[in-house]
Structures are given as C-alpha cells and as structure tokens.
C-alpha cells in the first residue's frame, strides 16, 4: 500500500527497534494478516489491518516495525479475526506491520510474528 500525501506533513521519529517476544513459542503457527485498502491510501483516511489464526481464541497484538511494544491489542474469546483500525492516517503511520497472538489457554506464551503488510 502506498500512502499518498496531499500536504507536506513530516514523518515522526521512529520507535525503538521491534524484537520478537522472548516467550514466542514456535509450536504455535504465526497468524495471517491483511490490509485494507490494499492500494493507495490518502492522508486522513482510515486503514484496517486484520489478523487471524484458525486454531485458537486469543489476544491478538499488532506490531509496527521499529516499535518495541505492540501498538494495539484485541481480545477474541473464540477463533476469529481481530480488526485493527488506524484512524486518519498520517505519514508517521507508514511502515511495516505484523501480528502475533497469545492463546487464551496459554497466556504466558506468544506466537511468532506473522507475515507483514506495509502501509
């Protein structure tokens, strides 16, 4: 996805480098991820990132590359899709996003980071 600027806004300073959870358990498959819209995004519009797995009710975590902590989280008590919305995107929102999850039955472990989408 390309971010189209209609102004001369500047990109904010990046977060510290993201690192995978020290408790990532490779027995859990990484989640899937999608971005909408998939093409160009104008400054000020909303973007939706969806993450899912097919086996576990979980807390889903949305990570942005360059940030050490998840930027959003969502709790799903059943298997399903977590929907994260970035409202009124700005150039500071451009970057690479990934998801992980913490299964409800195993709250002290996390899945590995999944594939990425780029805004």
Automatic annotation (TrEMBL):
Domain Ig-like: 31-99
Keywords assigned by UniProt, alphabetized: Disulfide bond, Immunoglobulin domain, Signal
Example GO BP: immune response-regulating signaling pathway
Database matches in InterPro entries: Ig-like_dom (IPR007110), Ig-like_dom_sf (IPR036179), Ig-like_fold (IPR013783), Ig-like_Receptors_ImmuneReg (IPR050412)
UniProt name for this protein: Ig-like domain-containing protein
């Amino acid at each position: 996805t390309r971010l189209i600027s209609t102004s001369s806004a500047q990109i904010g300073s990046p977060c510290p480098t993201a690192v995978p959870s020290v408790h990532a358990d490779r027995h859990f498959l990484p989640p899937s991820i999608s971005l909408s819209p998939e093409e160009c995004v104008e400054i000020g519009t909303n973007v939706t990132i969806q993450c899912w797995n097919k086996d576990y009710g979980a807390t889903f975590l949305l990570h942005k590359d360059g940030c050490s902590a998840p930027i959003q989280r969502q709790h799903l008590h059943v298997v399903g899709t977590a929907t994260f919305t970035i409202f009124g995107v700005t150039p500071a929102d451009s970057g690479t996003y990934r998801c992980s999850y913490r299964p409800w039955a195993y709250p002290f472990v996390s899945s590995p980071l999944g594939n990425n989408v780029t805004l």
